[in-house]
């Protein structure tokens, strides 16, 4: 690992499992390169801990290129750290200063129980998707793309909603631990396209019901989720979900 | 009600109730502020007392008063329920949470601002509503109408009451700055053609309503109107 000139104090949340209480533990790191990613800095910390015979810090990560949605650290009071529109793996140490103290905590929500240290169980999101975040189509050859005309603006809006990587930063930063931005993005990406229409009003009811059952909080429109989302998912999706939910409950024959 | 399923018990349904009652209360404030602003005619309250007399005797208004109370209580109870649920949704709090990096302080403090307004409302209702509805307004003006203007004038001689009213109107301003636009978002009205108008109208509405209301105790206390 390349050496640099940054000396840092880390305050990292250590928690054995969901049954025990956790606490912030201080670690000193020397000679950190400003060109390292935040996760590489954690790799250095973990090598030190392993060499000393201590337990390494457990944290989620996978692709390390900002598209998988696995990394999930709450850094100095913000999900994915101080920069906008990046995930923790794409955050670099040059965003910090030599001598900084950095507090790193897991996502905190009743619906995201801590597995260990900085890793939380986000399978609540999977259950929300399984409740209705899909389309039912016959298998077989894909039909010609041009046989389904979709206006450009509509396609773009659906694509922007589909950019959600399901990392959970919206839940983490929301003062109410609400999952409205995630759920609305997963509803919108289908509600905006013709393939999503047959199940549109059943989907919004089922997914909102599952979101509530998972114990996420209620939205109060602070806008923190939109500001912190690494993929820039818009609050327009929440408004669309609210419209669809009202249509489904008050104007649709099919009430779930 | 089976046809509507869990429409109002779901998280979105609860938001609809907050937003709908919020917009209803916003409309009420326009009527309340408009009639009260008649005191600024500075005619010894003759015109204002005509308005107050109409509001106290017209049966449509009196029926509306019941709806207003129900709406207000629904707004308060729903807020309490939502706040308790939201606290449960995050049992372990963050050691460091940089809220100012991503949202306005008043958007995150609607419960606190609302509680301040509730305390104000208890004082406010006992100052005027209880007097005009139950204990009775002691004097009549030159037109023979109940002289609510005189009650206002007497009440606002107390500097503590004036201070409470002015501070509460600052709370109201910030509560509305978030609430006005938030209600539209909740109702699904988020559209590039209207967002600018909604945001602008919300800011102007909040500031104008709060300043007009705050000016009333100040004007009485310092004798700008007689």
Describe this structure in words.
The complex is a heterodimer of chains A (256) and B (226). Chain A has 256 residues and is of the alpha+beta class. Chain A folds into two domains: 110 residues, Ubiquitin-like (UB roll) (Roll); 118 residues, Fumarate Reductase Iron-sulfur Protein, Chain B, domain 2 (Orthogonal Bundle), CATH 1.10.1060. Chain A is built from eight helices and seven strands, in the order ββαβββββααααααα. Chain A has a five-stranded mixed β-sheet with strand order 2-1-5-3-4. The longest helix of chain A is centred in the C-terminal third of the chain and has 16 residues. The model of chain A has no long low-confidence stretch (mean pLDDT 95). Chain B is an all-alpha fold. In chain B, α1 crosses α3, α1 crosses α8 and α5 crosses α7. The interface between A and B is large, with 52 and 44 residues.
Short description:
The complex is a heterodimer of chains A (256) and B (226). With 256 residues, chain A is of the alpha+beta class.
Keywords:
heterodimer; A: 256 residues; alpha+beta; Ubiquitin-like (UB roll); Fumarate Reductase Iron-sulfur Protein, Chain B, domain 2; 2 domains; 5-stranded mixed β-sheet; two-stranded antiparallel ribbon; elongated; B: 226 residues; mainly alpha; 3 helical TM bundles of succinate and fumarate reductases; 8 helices
